[in-house]
Amino acid sequence: MKHKKPEPEPETQLKNDTEICQQLLSRYSASTAPQHRHLLATAAALRSILTAESLPLTPSAYFAAAINNLSDSKTLDSTAIAALLSFVSIVVPLIEEKGIKDAKVKEAVAVLVEVAVEREGVGVGSLGCVVKCLGVMILGFCDLEKWDSVKAGFESLIKFSVDKRPKVRRSAHECLEKVFKSFRSSSVVKEASKLVFSLFKNYMPVALTLSESRIFDESKEETLSKLEHLEVIHMLNLLKVTVPYLSVKISSKVLPELVKLLRSDFSVLTRQIFQNIEAFFVSSSDEVIGPQQENIIDSLSGYLSLGQKNPVDTVLSAATLLRTILNKLRAGGSSSWTSNGHKIFGSTAGLLTDEATASQASDIMKELINHYIDPKEVVINESQSLDDSSQESEEANMIKSTCAVLENILNSCDGIPNEHLLGVISVLFKKLGDVSHIFMKNIILKLADLMNDVGRDKPDTNHLQNCMGSAVVAIGPEKMLMLLPISIDLDNFTCSNIWLVPILKDHVVGASLGYYMEHIVPLAKSFKQAGQKVRKSVIGQDLQAHAHGLWGLLPAFCRYPVDTHKKFGALAELMITSLKKYSFMHQNIAVALQDAIACLASISNSSVTQKVFMSLLKRFRFVTGEGEFQQPKSDGDELIEEEARSLNVQEKDVHRFVMMELASSLVVGAKTDFIDLIYNFVVFIFQATDVTGHCEAYHTLSRILQEHTWFCSSRFVELIDLLLGLKSPDDVATLKNRFACFHILIVHALEMNSEEKNTKAFLMLNEIILILKDAREEARKVAYDTLLFISSSLRNSSCATSREAYQRLISMITGYLSGSSPYITSGAVSALSVLVYNDTEICLKVPDLVPSLLSLLQNKALEVIKAVLGFTKVLVSCLQAKDLQNFLSDIIIGVLPWSSVSRNHFRSKVTVILEIMIRKCGSSAVELDIPEKHKSFFKTVLQNRHHKSTSKEAGTNDTEKTPADISPKRVEKPKNKESGSVPERTGSVHPGKRKREKKHNENPPTSSKPGISTGDGSGREGAKRARHFEHEKSIKVRSEDGWKKRNFNKEQTGDGKRKMEHRNTNKKGKASFRGPSSASKLHKPQKAWKKQKLNN
């Protein structure tokens, strides 16, 4: 094979006011690259020619000389041609506009094309120079109003656009688009469009043959090996570039031809056809699209109906294209959007049951629902049924058909539907709101059947419960209990729909106090009375627990009730009676009062509320008569003596708790002066005590930062200094509230992107990463959740700099990878595992991330190796197959050396990683990168995988998608039941959250969560804690846009009887840790609710 000489690539543009040859000499005289030496020789030779003929050394003169030499290319070798073409591509942009006459342009085009096409051995780089010259000459020297002027160059660009070399095609497409876009004359556009259509028609016979052929993996390579088949694909890629600029007449001819190529089965042309049709719908008029839209929608819907028989990426492309089509129809005012909307909704919804397409299909469905479902256009009466409501309304018909589609999919599901289908149903509940009880009645009943079928304490009902919660938010508790009444059969003591109680507790907002007192309380009493009849049996205990659960709905009904002004007196009497009669109601009443206070404060005059709060501070002697906070005394004996004369220490602590809880309830409606007062009280608590009241103070501060963004901006440095000056707390509840402050401050710092704020953010992030290595699982979970909250906030932020801020977060964490401490390095790897599990795009947006992490597998520190193998498992589990292909080689080379190490389960971890890659990418693709010395191990993995039973493989696949191995140490022993269970005794746990309250001895818990005390909360301190943590339940605030759930702390301080290693704290309060490296399972961040206020 003849060796090709190096070719010069197009150079950076030179200046047109300096002699060209001199510029090239200045730039490349020191270079030893052959192409540069040839370029300089060519420039010098051309300058000699111009000088000898007494011609000016201008760009146009150089250009003419170079073209003149190329016209006699038969006498030149390939090296000289390459140098001349490179020189021409440098010179042409320097020629002034219209600096070459039209006739000379045509002549130059002919010369360049002849050299490129007829001369053998012209390389890709040289052809790229030719294409670049053609584009510049058409735009700079041709008369764009005359077809004859641009015809030769345009035809040449068309030919290069289907060239077999990718770089040449790419360059030609770019030039062609610029040229087509510059045409202003309709006659020129017409002729150019004809040229494109003519080429397209030439390829149509082959294209039809290809579209009708079913392509299998083994025949695809053979099919694409034929040049004419490849040229069809190149032609379609060219067509996609030109579609926006084609004349209406030609577009009307091209689109029907494309529709002929559409099939319900996949072909090698499918992707290009979809891209072209999308280009038509984005850029063309209804005149072009209208006649073909029905055929296109039917064809795409048919393609979706085959599901897994077609490649996943093309199925998702078809679904996205259908969404684009519907948007076009609706925006254009077409009356057919509703009838076609039924087809598009139905075909897209069918993808929700396939795990490969469910996530993307869910996003598309949610967008369609939000854009095209409008309950405001549907006028119905409460007495109407679904069959007779708004029969003439197109909007109502759209809603009906959408609900019917989702209902059919629900009915076809075997077991609990996946989170994506339930997520779409939740969005529909939210969109329809109150009318959901009419249109979605059957769906609600079906969901209820599923809840009844799965029984209690199932770990996989999180999303199902959340979906039912969306229904509660949409239609309210009264209508929900009309559809699904909670009742007890006194003959056999069986209960109906009792699983609704915890869901109501989490989701009721803006309900009626009267309904609680008139319906819920009597129902609770009936359960209690029934339980007393069989009090010594397990059934009796269950019935008592159900009664307590119904009573415990009081705080939920106190969240922005609609009839406070009418029912508050009766409510007060009920509370007083319950306080005296039922000890288990103390906590519920305390939280209900806090919620009620928060609701009232949000709509009250801030200055009046501030005066009341200040009077209480004075009463409890937190401030002096002048309104200044009492400064703590340095002498401990004097402090004890002073408190002994006024109040005992325990009572003082109670006052601190109560006032801080009250302060947190008043944050929402507070104005600037009041916020300053509350903040000063927080600082006072931090300074006055070592730990007492810090949990509540951190929580109140996080509420201020969350509700009043101006405070974060104006006091940022002061806030950071305050928080970092305090030592990291030992108890998990306080740590969680501290990290809630860190979350908001880190997001603010990263979005502002100042050097000082980034430094402060780094210090906070450092503490979070250290906690990832804490010995306590509860503390690690807090750190993991905080990282997820920060990541989610940055990714979903509307701030213009949020994308850059997200990148800075990743960069900060990756900075720890080069640290000298294995302890810190493994913590950073765990942090990245969390983020990658939540957003796999990180690996694609930060190309060096995965290689950097895999390089750590050469480390000798075992905890680093464990962390990186955990990261790798998360990576291969979460990435789609097409993206995973890019990392296969690096992963295989990185992990295989540890396949021979059985210690720390390294061998089994590598095995699992390989199995996942084999399942996703195929054994052949994986085997290509397996080194020879590891072939036997790989063969063993394949054999074991082959012999696994189908059920065992399904179980493995389930675990592959969990983030359990993102931490350096997995907790192998069985855990308490997850928060996604449906406990009938303990009430609800909102998905992804810990239990909100403790239960008393009258209602023993069936499960417990880390960090939550399972005691009965007796005693003064226990009661204070109970009130605080129950108050931390999310208060849902109502407004015109929807609901927002304010995330409060829900954990109980105390680690029970668990023994653990404690952290060491230095004098400055900076925490360092020792003990085993471990981490907890990853939990997804809580979903935010939109905030609203209800005006009574």
Describe it:
The protein contains 51 helices and 6 strands. With 1096 residues, it is an all-alpha fold. The strands form 3 sheets. The chain has a two-stranded antiparallel sheet with strand order 1-2. A hairpin with a 4-residue loop joins β3 and β4. α9 runs antiparallel to α11, α32 runs antiparallel to α33 and α39 runs antiparallel to α40. It is globular. The N terminus and C terminus are likely disordered.
Strand order of the largest sheet: 1-2
Distance between the termini: 87 Å
Q: Report the β-strand fraction as a percent range.
A: under 5%
- Going by helix content, strand content and strand pairing, the class is mainly alpha
Low-confidence regions: 1-11, 949-1096
For the largest beta-sheet, the strand count, sense and barrel status come to: 2 strands, antiparallel
Oligomeric state as shown: single chain
Average pLDDT score: 80
Number of strands: 6
Q: Helical amount among residues, as a percent range?
A: 55-70%
Query: How many alpha or pi helices?
Result: 51
From the alpha carbons, calculate the radius of gyration and give it in angstroms. 36 Å
The shape is: globular
Give the SSE map.
Elements: H1 20-28, H2 34-52, H3 59-70, H4 78-91, H5 102-118, H6 124-141, H7 147-160, H8 166-182, H9 186-211, H10 217-224, H11 227-242, H12 248-260, H13 270-283, H14 286-289, H15 293-305, H16 312-331, H17 337-349, H18 355-372, H19 394-412, H20 419-432, H21 436-439, H22 441-454, H23 462-483, E1 487-489, E2 494-496, H24 500-507, H25 513-533, H26 538-551, H27 554-557, H28 564-581, H29 586-603, H30 606-619, H31 636-646, H32 649-665, H33 672-688, H34 694-707, H35 709-714, H36 716-724, H37 732-752, H38 755-771, H39 777-796, H40 802-814, H41 822-838, H42 841-845, H43 849-855, H44 862-878, H45 881-884, H46 888-895, H47 906-921, H48 923-927, H49 935-947, H50 950-960, H51 1019-1031, E3 1035-1038, E4 1043-1046, E5 1064-1065, E6 1071-1072
Antiparallel strand pairs: 1-2, 3-4, 5-6
Helix pairs in contact: 1-2, 2-3, 2-4, 3-4, 4-6, 5-6, 5-7, 6-7, 6-8, 7-8, 7-9, 8-11, 9-11, 9-12, 11-13, 12-13, 13-16, 15-16, 15-17, 16-17, 16-18, 17-19, 18-20, 19-22, 20-23, 22-23, 23-24, 25-26, 29-32, 29-51, 32-33, 32-34, 32-51, 33-34, 34-37, 36-38, 37-38, 37-39, 37-40, 39-40, ...
